[in-house]
Every structure is written in C-alpha cells, then in structure tokens.
Amino acid sequence: MKNLVDKFIKVCLAVIVLLTVITVNLDSAQAARSTFQKTCSEISLNSVNTNPTLSAVCRQRNQIPHQTCLRLKGIENINGNLEQHSLNQPSTFQKSCRNISIDGAKLSASCRKRNQSYQNTSLYIPNIENIDGNLQYN
Predict the structure, then answer these.
(1) In terms of Cα–Cα distance, which of 71, 117, 115 is closest to 94?
(2) What integer pLDDT is reported at residue 19 of this predicted model?
(3) Looking at the predicted structure, is the pLDDT value of residue 22 above 50?
(4) How far is 70 from 90, CA to CA, in rounded Å?
(5) Sign of CA dihedral 12, 16, 19, 25
(6) How far is CA 11 from CA 14, 24, 128, in A?
(7) Of 24, 77, 116, 138, which is most buried by a Cβ count within 10 Å?
(8) CA 23, CA 86: separation in Å to the nearest integer?
(9) Residues 81, 111: contact at Cβ < 8 Å?
(10) What are the tens digits of pLDDT across the range 88-112?
(11) Cβ atoms of residues 98 and 104 within 8 Å
(12) pLDDT at 21 over 80
C-alpha cells in the first residue's frame, strides 16, 4: 500500500511540474519580450507625469538612425508592482509611482502600495519592436 501511495504522489508531482511548465510557456508566448533595445540607442522616458512616452534613436533597414517615440500603454501599478495589462488602455502607473527610469526594455520605479508605503519594482516592457526605425507594439 505504501508503494502505491508513493507512486501516486510521484505522478501528482509530475503532473504539477508539467502544468507549471505549460503555464509559464503560455505566459511567455502571450507577452513576448521586447526587441527594440537591440537596434535602438538613447532610450529614455518622456512626459512621465502625464502620458509616459518611450523615446529612442532606432536604426532603419538602411542603417540610418531615426528618432522615434511610442506612448506606453496598459502599464499599471498593482499594489506596488508594475504590471502590463491591456494595450487598449492608457498607462496609469505614473500616477502612483516615483523615481521612474528605464534601462533598455526594463522599466523601474518605486510604487505606492495599498498601505501607502513604497516598493521598488520593475517590469520588462513586452511587445515593443523597432520596425524600420519606428517603435511599435507587435
């Protein structure tokens, strides 16, 4: 009987591991990492207090640099954590976060929690590409 219980536990653990791997892969597929930082330089954030805008100088197909910008969409502060939500909504994180900065595709800030304390957080902004010198969501 003990052997049967041990086998059952092992099978359950294997199923849990498999489901975890599948879930992580699905999440990764839905929110692909940005690639713009590979072909863009001078990456910065502008208009942080109102409509956060990502600015950069990006190479076009012909390798000529092009100044471009893109309004960040759907980034929210959820209890002190930066999270990406619907691209159909404007970003709101800037209303309750401070010390906002960007390094490549990594957005960092100190964001207010429900208890009014602040927490350092970061988010790799997903789904932004350099399309012939222009920043675009994919």
Answers:
(1) 71
(2) 41
(3) no
(4) 12
(5) negative
(6) 5, 20, 40
(7) 77
(8) 19
(9) yes
(10) 999 999 999 999 999 999 999 999 9
(11) no
(12) no
